[in-house]
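Reopening this one. Same input as before:
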Amino acid sequence: MAIDATISEKTERGRAEERRLMQEANSAGVMLTDYSRDANLNRRPDFMVYVYSIVNRRFEVHRPPSFPIIVFEPCPEDEDYKLVGAFPSPVNEMIWMEDRTFSVGVDGVFFTRGVLNPSGAWGEIGAGGEMEWAAASTDLTRRGLFMSMSRPPKPEEVRACRTRMETHYRWCLKTADELDRANRRREIGPEHHLAADYFAYKANWHYTQTAPTPCPYCGELVRPGLAYHMNSANMMCVLDWRRAVAAGVKKMEDVPVAERGEWWKDSGQGSGVSGQKKRGPKEPMADTAAVQAAELEGSLLTEDPGDGQGGE
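Same output, byte for byte:
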């Protein structure tokens, strides 16, 4: 059986790559650029643009075909900011043009702005040039991300990002309250609740649920963070003695020895018997009963017998 085979013509990109590899093979140690295609493909970055996060939230941005998904990891709650991305300038990005795709070099600052806020890529981030509806759409600079040319970022950049995020969260709270008054709670979304959590905002449309934890003493389930609670046997379980004393449900002398920390010592407890001289660091502690007996004996010796006749 005869086999017919045809070899398709090489693409423009394939021919350019073949020429470049052949030239480099003939010029050892020299990296050549084929100017019949985009020169930015072999260009070293001029600088880097850094992306930081100040919020414990994960973001995903989709920019196909070159970047199907860009992930920005959350910032830990115990950190002021975290480096979550870095883009070179220029960025080599594939674009569609009619029936073909080709690569172009995009300025790193412009590219990063477009990733963080597509509606405000042409203006300065945070300068007020974004569209009003961007506050409710894809503007990540209002949600805890910001770009910087510095590593680490400047303190004023971190503060400006937090100001933008808090302004956006206040806008979310105002919108949620208006939806609640209009009986449109179904339109209140996750971001409204994130804003309420951030400000510890209490509203009818927002409530938090915490899983109960077992009491280490009685085993009953209680809310986390309690200082004390009454169990089913009508007995009090103290989980935090310092807070229980501050609340007035327990006295300082009720605190067990094992729970007496620095706070108990600083309150003046355990300094000795009232009226007793404070002992030095190397003096033995006086016996309480002996001290009381000595005080009683002294008072009897100094007491005037008084026979009712006055004096001599």
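So the earlier flakiness isn't reproducible anymore. For the record, Helices lie at 12-26, 108-116, 155-181, 190-199, 241-247, 262-266, 288-301.
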